[in-house]
Amino acid sequence: MNSNIDAMSATPPASTWPRPQRLAVGPLHRMAWRELGQPAGEPWLLLHGGPGGACQPGMLRPFDLSRQRVIAPDQRGAGASRPRGRTMGNNTAALVADLESLRCRLGIGRWSLLAGSWGTVVALAYAQRHPERVQRLVLRGAFALTRREIGGLLLPSVKRGQTLRAPAACWPVRPGTGVPVALARLRQLLQNGTPGVASLRALRGWGLRETADAMRGLRRSLRHAPLPQTAAIRRDWAAQQRSQRRALAALLRPGMRRSDRAAWGKFRVQAHYLLHRGFVRPGALDHAVRLLALRGTPVDWVHGRFDAICPPANSARWAAQGLAAGGPVVLHTPPCGHLGGEPAMLAQLRVCVRRTLP
């Protein structure tokens, strides 16, 4: 669900990533957004993961910016939105209202949505509330907000490998802890405006866990990738390993760094949303899938076969529901993990996003 690890190597140059503009959305929040590409082109809304993540330059790679217009907002309390880490007035219904306010501000009649991980929840919620404003959806690595998924992110597991077992004493969630208790503990640690020692270790440990889960998918995709893709996957693997080593070295380092401040905001928002199961009522996402099918809205479900964060069964189930309701639905299962920048995933996203609708 981490949008930062989704923005992998070979990202566009920084010159293509403008400074954010901000839109006041209620008395507490100012939502940051960026606009890129062809102003008169096909409009796309880009929704990042998290919760609490942010849009990154690497997330532009599926688009053809010479003919497509991309709107890339950071959700409430996340990324460049202000105030960072603010959870008051922050829920999924508010995120949907923010996107609709942005659409009105830009004068866009209908737009298409590209969303990844947690962003797929926001995309489906938006499509359910404003179906007439959605041209089509491309949904990557769908997140279903199940207890299994959330527990996989937070509960101790030997699957993350020896590199994460060494600092396990620093992770505030102990083996045998239930998901609600784990989330309540993490949320409590991250509520203070100035993180203490335990809070710093928690947010650094959370980042390590995300990286480890992403690397599990990368490792499996490397075993099954065609030869032309293996070099790129090895480069990404090496980059993730370097990042993990730096994070492990900094785990017990005293004092707050700039990266800690960004992680504090991100995981504060993430704990808030996960504790409330995304502020999504049971069955609401299923209803959104059926509504899109009945309206004839095209949906591409793209899910890596080796995704170790969000089970591929999520997309398979929703694609089957859409097809059963007669919708123009396609399920794609490239041989890769969760990351949007893996070669097989990126190739499939490019095909879906750049396809011209009849």
Under the CATH scheme, the architecture of the largest domain is: 3-Layer(aba) Sandwich
How much β-strand is present in the residues? Answer: 5-15%
First and last CA, distance: 33 Å
Percent helix range: 40-55%
Walk me through what this model shows.
There is one protein chain. This protein is of the alpha/beta class. The protein has two domains: 3-145 and 278-354, Rossmann fold (3-Layer(aba) Sandwich); 148-277, no CATH class. The protein is built from twelve helices and eight strands. Strands 1-2-4-3-5-6-7-8 form an eight-stranded mixed sheet, sandwiched between helices. Helix 3 packs across helix 10 (284-295) and helix 6 runs antiparallel to helix 9 (258-275). The longest helix has 28 residues, at 197-224. The radius of gyration is 19 Å and the shape is globular.
Gist of the model:
Helices cover 45% and strands 13% of the residues.
Q: What labels describe this entry?
A:
single chain; 358 residues; alpha/beta; Rossmann fold; 2 domains; eight-stranded mixed β-sheet; 12 helices; 45% helix; globular
Q: What is the element layout, followed by pairings?
A:
Blueprint: H1 3-6, E1 21-25, E2 29-37, E3 42-47, E4 68-73, H2 92-106, E5 111-116, H3 118-129, E6 134-140, H4 147-154, H5 162-165, H6 179-189, H7 197-224, H8 227-250, H9 258-275, H10 284-295, E7 299-302, H11 313-324, E8 329-332, H12 343-354
Parallel strand pairs: 3-4, 3-5, 5-6, 6-7, 7-8
Antiparallel strand pairs: 1-2, 2-4
Helix pairs in contact: 2-3, 3-10, 6-9, 7-8, 7-9, 10-11
